[in-house]
Amino acid sequence: MAHAGDKPATERRIHVLPVELLERVRSYQNDNGIASEVEAVRRLLSEALQARDSIDDLMKQVRAQFKKDRDFRTMARDVLSGHILVKRIEIADTDLKFIMRSGEAGKIDRQGRMLTGMSDDEGYVHNWYDWPPKPDFPVRTKRSSSGDPDEEIPF
User: 66 near 108, Cβ under 8 Å?
Assistant: First the structure.
């Protein structure tokens, strides 16, 4: 039973599509043995949206899944394994790593610490950096006793 404030899992929408596009959807449906036109459209939309994902988008999805279930295998299955931009997934006792086609890599450990990096051609990540990156704060200053803003003193 849904609780107040819960979002429904699906929502009915009606979209008008050009006939040529609908023919391409039906061809995709038939070529891939998909039972319904609606499912074919869902898959096409999902793949198109995944193709736009960045490492940050995937890290956010991994973090959201980690909050629901800390099991690395479930996370790999539900978030990473079907994603068209993920080319490699490694599950170890202490962490889960993945590499995207772009070479960008992500990692999460059992405590929820998240890191990103870039992999080389062999899939090795030489440097890992905290994710999300810490914001760069401007140097804080205080005004001199004269009140002149040109005489600000760093502290």
Answer: yes
